[in-house]
Design brief:
The complex is a heterodimer of chains A (158) and B (114).
Chain A lengths: L2 H17 L4 H21 L12 H27 L8 E5 L6 H13 L3 E5 L4 E5 L7 H16 L3
Antiparallel strand pairs in A: 1-3, 2-3
Chain B lengths: L1 H28 L3 H27 L3 H30 L11 H10 L1
Helix pairs in contact in B: 1-2, 2-3
Classes of the chains: A mainly alpha (158), B mainly alpha (114).
Chain lengths: 158, 114
């Protein structure tokens, strides 16, 4: 059971980054709030491998870096659609079957789609239901790369 | 040198503010709820990222920069969840997206004919 001490260290580091206080009163309050957080997490039953995917940390960091670039490219496209009064937009709704097998992978993929301007996930029951601003971006191929990347980042390389 | 970094940071923050204005413009301009969500996500992602990046450059290497980075990470985690909750609720309540090609000028023409 490495996940309980791991979470304790992470929460303590987070507390210190946000407060930066070292007086006894604040340290006492820190211990109380950290213990309360750990107790709540234990009650929710989320102190396990799924909630603390240390083994995926490096993949998730790489994925985040790639996603930021994608988000910026999509931002440019949508900003152009807003500013260019003559541009025709063609909203469409498509179904995208996620590659990821785990709930975490599906959530990562769905949130990545929503985070990218121009595409938003409407429903995640079964296949993802995605609303897109430009129909030409709604082909399965436009989601294929993000789909595969998200699945590999969340589920690990098979 | 640090003055140059401050200038770059300030420019990024202003660029972020402009992106937020463009996002708001899109929310007014686009035809239906779902397309407006796309415009709002410019404010969520591009504008927030540019502004926070600019503020980090202005603050320099400090705890403040770390806190700003943490704020950015939280925005990136929570805003898609909120956007999905909104669109999912709208879809569940029976709001159907307007599909097919659409242009602002066409809408103006139709309204003028009415």
């Amino acid at each position: 059971m490495i996940y309980l001490p791991g979470l304790a260290v992470a929460v303590a580091a987070f507390w210190f980054a946000l407060s930066g206080q070292t007086t006894p009163l604040f340290l006492l309050l820190a211990v109380v709030s950290i213990l309360a957080t750990l107790w709540l997490c234990a009650r929710l039953g989320i102190i396990d491998r799924d909630a603390s995917p240390y083994h995926l940390a490096h993949l998730l960091v790489l994925y985040a870096g790639w996603l930021v670039v994608e988000i910026f490219k999509a931002n440019v496209v949508v900003i152009r659609s807003v500013l260019d009064l003559r541009q025709t937009i063609s909203p469409a709704v498509v179904k995208v079957p996620p590659d990821a097998k785990t709930d975490f992978g599906r959530a990562l993929f769905a949130n990545s789609i929503t985070l990218t301007p121009g595409t938003v996930t409407i429903d995640i029951a079964g296949d993802l239901l995605v609303h897109v601003l430009h129909e030409e971006n709604s082909q399965p191929a436009s989601f294929a790369l993000m789909n595969r990347m998200a699945a590999r980042a969340a589920d690990g390389w098979e | 040198m640090s003055e140059v970094v401050t200038w770059i940071g300030s420019s990024l923050a202003v660029a972020g503010a402009l992106a937020a204005i463009i996002g708001s413009l899109g929310v007014i301009r686009f035809p239906d709820f779902y397309t407006r969500t796309h415009a709002a996500s410019i404010t969520d992602t591009g504008a927030a990222t540019l502004m926070i990046l600019g503020l980090i450059l202005i603050s320099g290497w400090s705890v403040l920069a770390l806190k700003l980075a943490i704020i950015w990470a939280f925005i990136m985690l929570t805003s898609p969840t909120a956007a999905h909750a909104l669109t999912n609720a709208a879809y569940g309540a029976g709001e159907r997206p307007q599909l097919g090609p659409w242009r602002l000028f066409d809408r103006d023409r139709k309204e003028a004919e009415r």
